[in-house]
Write a structure and sequence with these properties.
Layout (H helix, E strand, L loop, with lengths): L2 H7 L3 H13 L3 H14 L4 H13 L3 H14 L4 H13 L3 H14 L6
């Protein structure tokens, strides 16, 4: 492990959560994903780190990982509307619009956005 990787993994889960959020806010999405992956693995029962990890994967074009994380989130929290929306957008970005459509419809309905 190099010193840079050690820094990313150093500290308590709370310190790494803060570090991951800082990287995300700085648009350093790949670094945020590296940090948040450990936090999410350590506390899989917490939604916030897992959702931010999925977002970091999405924004760093790690779409397969984003899809996997979002599916895992929705398996545990099926009413998480933002995860529904993100999974739909991830699938669209992967060229799977037909598969994305139901997730986008569910997200819209959960947000109260019904077609006229």
């Amino acid at each position: 492990m190099d010193a840079r990787q050690g820094y990313l993994e150093h500290g308590t889960a709370a310190e790494r959560w803060d570090r991951g959020r800082l990287f995300f806010e700085a648009k350093e999405y790949a670094k945020a994903a590296l940090v948040l992956d450990g936090v999410a693995a350590e506390a899989p029962e917490l939604l916030a780190p897992r959702l931010l990890l999925a977002r970091a994967y999405y924004h760093s074009a790690q779409l397969s990982r984003a899809e996997d994380e979002l599916r895992a989130i929705l398996e545990r929290w099926p009413v998480e509307d933002y995860a529904q929306l993100m999974l739909g957008r991830t699938l669209e970005r992967r060229g799977r619009a037909a598969e994305a459509a139901p997730y986008l419809r569910i997200a819209a309905a959960m947000a109260g956005d019904f077609p006229e």
